[in-house]
From TrEMBL:
<dbReference type="InterPro" id="IPR018298">
    <property type="entry name" value="Adrenodoxin_Fe-S_BS"/>
</dbReference>
<dbReference type="GO" id="GO:0009055">
    <property type="term" value="F:electron transfer activity"/>
</dbReference>
<dbReference type="GO" id="GO:0005829">
    <property type="term" value="C:cytosol"/>
</dbReference>
<keyword id="KW-0408">Iron</keyword>
<dbReference type="InterPro" id="IPR001041">
    <property type="entry name" value="2Fe-2S_ferredoxin-type"/>
</dbReference>
<dbReference type="InterPro" id="IPR036010">
    <property type="entry name" value="2Fe-2S_ferredoxin-like_sf"/>
</dbReference>
<dbReference type="Pfam" id="PF00111">
    <property type="entry name" value="Fer2"/>
</dbReference>
<feature type="domain" description="2Fe-2S ferredoxin-type">
    <location>
        <begin position="2"/>
        <end position="106"/>
    </location>
</feature>
<keyword id="KW-0479">Metal-binding</keyword>
<dbReference type="GO" id="GO:0140647">
    <property type="term" value="P:P450-containing electron transport chain"/>
</dbReference>
<comment type="similarity">
    <text>Belongs to the adrenodoxin/putidaredoxin family.</text>
</comment>
<protein>
    <submittedName>
        <fullName>2Fe-2S ferredoxin</fullName>
    </submittedName>
</protein>
<dbReference type="InterPro" id="IPR012675">
    <property type="entry name" value="Beta-grasp_dom_sf"/>
</dbReference>
<dbReference type="GO" id="GO:0046872">
    <property type="term" value="F:metal ion binding"/>
</dbReference>
<keyword id="KW-0411">Iron-sulfur</keyword>
<dbReference type="GO" id="GO:0051537">
    <property type="term" value="F:2 iron, 2 sulfur cluster binding"/>
</dbReference>
<keyword id="KW-0001">2Fe-2S</keyword>
C-alpha cells in the first residue's frame, strides 16, 4: 500500500492507502474523494481525472505519454506544469506520502 494524500477542491484532505499498481484515479474513486469525476473510467479519453501532482514528486514518476499530454490540452481547470491525469499515474513505493490536489472543476 502507498499512502497518498488527496486534497479536495474544498481544501479537505483524505489520506488513503492505495494498493501498489493502482492508478491515483482508482484510489480516489474507490474512496469517494470529492472532485474526481473520471468519466471514462481510466481510458485516458476524457481528462476528468485532472490533478496536480506534488511538484517534489514529479521526478519520481514517468513523464506523460503522448496520449496523456494530448488529453491534458482539454482540461477545464488551469493546466499547470504539474498537471497530470490521475488515471495515468500508478501508485508505487516511490510516491509514498505525496499530495495530489484536485482542481475546482473537471467538466
Amino acid at each position: 500500500m502507498v499512502m497518498i494524500t488527496y486534497v479536495e477542491p474544498n481544501g479537505g484532505r483524505q489520506e488513503i492507502d492505495v494498493p501498489e499498481g493502482w492508478s491515483l484515479m482508482q484510489g480516489a474513486m474507490s474512496n469517494g474523494v470529492d472532485g474526481m469525476e473520471a468519466e471514462c473510467g481510466g481510458s485516458c479519453a476524457c481528462a476528468t481525472c485532472h490533478c496536480y501532482i506534488d511538484e517534489a514528486a514529479l521526478a519520481r514518476i514517468p513523464p506523460a505519454a503522448d496520449n496523456e499530454a494530448a488529453m491534458l490540452e482539454n482540461v477545464v481547470a488551469e493546466r499547470r506544469p504539474n498537471s497530470r491525469l490521475a488515471c495515468q499515474v500508478k501508485a508505487t513505493a516511490a510516491l509514498e506520502g505525496i499530495l495530489v490536489e484536485l482542481p475546482a472543476a473537471q467538466s
